[in-house]
Amino acid sequence: MVTINSNKVSIGIAIVVIIFTLSLSCPNTQAQTNIAFTPADKFSIPEYNGSISFAVNGTYSIATFENNTWTFTNLHLNRSRLFENLTISTQNSNVTILSYTTSNNTEFQNAQLRYMVEGKGKQILNLDLGSGEGELEWSVTFNNHLIDEGEGWNVLHGGTVVVTGATGDVSVVRDDYFNYNAPAYQQHSVAIIIAVAVAITVVIVVVIKVKNRENLNESELVKSA
Questions:
Q1: Which of 32, 25, 26 is nearest to 74 (CA)?
Q2: How far is it, in rounded angstroms, from Cα 170 to Cα 142?
Q3: Does residue 26 contact residue 42 with C-beta atoms inside 8 Å?
Q4: What is the pLDDT of residue 83?
Q5: pTM of the entire predicted model
Q6: How far apart are CA 196 and CA 214, in angstroms?
Q7: How far is Cα 216 from Cα 115, in angstroms, rounded to an integer?
């Protein structure tokens, strides 16, 4: 009976350690109360004569309007990746957000926001991608034509992108080329955390099994005596 109960305890400890570790490395996986929207919904900016809408159905957990700027948290468009935070304002133009896509490999990570704009106004947006791990490159296209920075768009401090005078199809892209000169623990921090958690779990299970064996041997000695 002691052995069975101890095994259950070891399994429980292992599960708790793994869940706790994953919650630290992936803090945004917590359950959220989502609010649904459709293409018919408009998020207006009256003072700037602008509005924001979406081309597809989707959900968000929070939408706040402050200083003539909309901020969407945990934004998810159908057939698109989860957008943790999008901050956007538009002046003298109406924006319809089409998609948000991300991709990555061993060399770089890519994020792209695509939208349609009516009216030659201005869009101010922040994709909340952080400072990145390596060399950053921004690019913007108007109707699939690559536009030089300073000729219709520019990037401000903190990764805020300002697009001016665009009409039609606009794509804002950020490429993050990984810095392989950084210490290994920075490049693979999540993998290291998970590996440490697994190692701790194995040690705990081994220690409990050894203790079980010792208790079992003691019980057999007592019975034989």
A1: 32
A2: 5
A3: no
A4: 87
A5: 0.66
A6: 27
A7: 68
